[in-house]
Amino acid sequence: MLMPRGFTIIETVMVMVIVAILSVVLLLRWGASDKARLDSSVRKIVSDIRYAQKLSVSSQTRAGIIFYPDSYEVYAVINSTPPTLANSPGEPCSTDSSGKFVVNFTQGRCKEFEGVTLSYITNTISFDSIGGLVNSTGEDITVNYKGSKTLSIENSTGRVSY
């Protein structure tokens, strides 16, 4: 009795189709995770900017954020010398070892944002007691991670859009 050897053309085509589908799914998922990291970091930064704005309104002092290329710090009182760091609201990525509001994208506690960098014209934004930007005509902060998104902060209202 003769034993068949090799694969039929149907079996070969089916294997090629399965490999192609898996490749497409893997590539889409890889690209989607990069976009998700960028979107997630943008939402975090916007949330923290709004937190600083609310802090200035509730405390009736100037509060704000100082940005660095791979981190930022939220200040409860920014017009004192030195500025007073805000206490963290308790999120692990927002809390340094002393409990202050420091976000550092290179630290292990912010692993989900690793590789994110920031670009800006002015590294310090501060809000007045009614939530508007102080000494500014508006600010733009660009968040970079395998692509970029720009956050814009309006002068008079402090509204953040992206």
Search tags:
162 residues, alpha+beta, five-stranded antiparallel beta sheet, four-stranded antiparallel beta sheet, 1 helix, elongated
SSE topology:
Elements: H1 9-59, E1 63-68, E2 71-77, E3 84-85, E4 102-104, E5 117-120, E6 124-127, E7 139-144, E8 148-153, E9 160-161
Antiparallel strand pairs: 1-2, 1-6, 2-3, 2-4, 5-7, 7-8, 8-9
Concise account of the structure shown:
This protein has one helix and nine strands, in the order αβββββββββ.
Radius of gyration: 24 Å
- Unreliable runs: none
The percentage helix is: 25-40%
**What's the number of helices?**
1
The whole-number mean of residue pLDDT values reads 88
**Fraction in beta strands:** 15-25%
Structural class, please?
alpha+beta
Oligomer type: single chain
How far is it from the N-terminal to the C-terminal residue, by CA? 72 Å
Number of distinct beta strands: 9
Biggest sheet record: 5 strands, antiparallel
Shape verdict: elongated
Along the chain, the helix and strand elements come as: HEEEEEEEEE
Could you characterize the architecture of this molecule?
- The protein is α+β, with helices and mostly antiparallel strands and 162 residues long.
- The protein contains 1 helix and 9 strands.
- Strands 1, 2, 3, 4 and 6 form a 5-stranded antiparallel β-sheet that branches.
- A hairpin with a 2-residue loop joins strand 1 and strand 2 (71-77).
- It is elongated.
- The termini are far apart.
- The model has no long low-confidence stretch (mean pLDDT 88).
